[in-house]
Amino acid sequence: MTFVYKGNIARGREWASHFATRAPHIPFHQWGEAFDPKNVRYLAVWEPPPDLATTMPNLELVFSVGAGVDQFDLTIVPAHVPLVRMLEPGIAEGMVEYVTMAVLGLHRDLVGYVAQQRQGRWEILSQRPTSERRVGVMGLGQLGQAVLDRLRHFEFQLSGWNRSPREIAGVTTFAGEANLPAFLGQCDILVCLLPLTDATRGILDAKLFAALPKGAMLLNVGRGGHLVDADLFAALDSGQISAAMLDVTEPEPPPAGHRFWTDPRILMTPHIAAYTRPSTAVDFVLDTIARLKAGNDLPGLVDRTRGY
Ligand code: NDP
Ligand code: OXD
């Protein structure tokens, strides 16, 4: 009943040491080490190997090492094998920290001040209290809700948009495509925390930007594929969007010479908003394995028809 980890090798070493202390009865291997694929029952992976179904015929459970699964070719994992995404608390904590930092940064004109510094300018930009700033989150799943829960402490005016209706204390919520324009019309800072699916690819486009208040700001922590890059540049050039922070791009990294690298109205980070913490991830996978064995439901089970 071997467990195999296929991902970042340094973090894999940490997984190995947590497995050694917490589950010494489960043989643990990193990808590239010698193991018999026929013994593999559990696999944690960012992108699955294409021949998974034939080389690992006794697989019982596959984990995405991240919270998102858009990088997965879902057809590779046999239909009878559950695919579970990483619902460990380290990811949510990292995302809450990053989004709080970025929303406060946008709110306090950090992008503009960094640009001014580069130009040798010392100028005070106008400021407003958080209670007069409207922050909207697209995607009210585990991460969107965790983020809103923390932003509430800063007294922003909060709203959220989601596929199915959600009720969240202190947050004005909107559901479904029909209510997207009403949601957007009241977002000074828009945060994208959607999964990347056929329905959400390219959602951050010219039409969406036009529905925001003039001068709105964008934070994309979902996936690069949500954003139509050219539409963002057009919106920045017209002043419809005044600043953007991007943690994700498509491709990653953007090619040399891409305007993301140099545009003073954009701050970019290399997909670091949140990442899986080995200690809590090992707790999560061991708990999920126990739940599978007991026939219980599996938190984080991916719905393959929805793609998240
Ligand atoms: P969840 O699956 O918990 O939440 C996704 C939410 O989005 C759900 O509430 C879902 O609504 C909603 N949603 C899905 N499709 C649509 C749609 N077409 N229109 C409106 N709402 C929709 O995901 P997480 O919160 O865990 O993660 C969200 C994403 O964050 C990940 O998929 C990943 O892309 C990104 N991420 C980025 C990281 C980074 O470092 N930058 C780190 C981790 C994650 P419903 O439930 O009604 O279907
Ligand atoms: C994730 C990510 O999906 O790191 O966990 O983006």
Characterization of this structure:
The chain is α/β, with parallel strands linked by helices. The chain is 31% helix and 18% strand. It has 9 helices and 12 strands. The strands form 2 sheets. A 7-stranded parallel β-sheet has the order 8-7-6-9-10-11-12. Strands 2-1-3-4-5 form a 5-stranded parallel β-sheet, with helices on one face. Strand 1, helix 1 and strand 2 (28-30) form a beta-alpha-beta unit. Helix 3 packs across helix 5 (142-151). The longest helix is centred in the first third of the chain and has 19 residues, at 89-107. It starts with a strand and ends in a 14-residue tail after the last helix. The model has no long low-confidence stretch (mean pLDDT 97). Bound molecules: NADPH dihydro-nicotinamide-adenine-dinucleotide phosphate (NDP) and oxalic acid. Oxalic acid binds at residues 66-68, 91, 275.
Q: Roughly how many Å is the radius of gyration?
A: 21 Å
Coarse shape: elongated
Strand neighbour order, sheet with most strands: 8-7-6-9-10-11-12
> What is the helix content?
25-40%
Mean of residue pLDDT values: 97
Distance between the termini: 27 Å
Task: Note the run of SSEs as H and E.
Answer: EHEEHEEHHEHEEHEHEHEEH
- How many DSSP-defined strands? 12
Poorly predicted runs are none
Strand content: 15-25%
Q: How would you sum up the major sheet?
A: 7 strands, parallel
- The tally of helices reads 9
Overall SS class = alpha/beta
Bound molecules: NADPH dihydro-nicotinamide-adenine-dinucleotide phosphate, oxalic acid
